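Thread: iron/sulfur cluster complex, take 2
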Amino acid sequence: MICIKCAKCCFNTEMILTPSDVSRISKLGYDPSEFTVKRDGFIRLRNVDGACYFLDRKTLRCSIYPHRPIGCVLYPIVYDPATNMLTVDRECPMHWTVTMSDLVKARPIMARALWELRILRPNELPKLPN
Ligand code: SF4
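Output below.
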């Protein structure tokens, strides 16, 4: 996958946070009430003026990049609950650079996040696209 760091995925984010994400980011000194919102039964990144709370507007860079949520690490690889399958979000202008190898590597990481969110059971893996 090639990321051109356009920050498109940081605007109007709906990124779901796992408990580990919230805990890791909180340890940096942020209060969850600052950077999260609860919607549709999930804790998500908060938007401020249409962009992620952690987006540095001057540089268009993530201000917590080494600690960013797992969903942001994996993006544009996302999970489709309707098919229990990994898929690639075409909103990302570089979606076409995601390879099957990227999907295979993302699979156990996504599985762990989905287990934390009580979407998958332990040791259950999302399907790979054909
Ligand atoms: S939208 Fe895609 S190319 Fe742009 S920063 Fe996000 S992952 Fe990278």
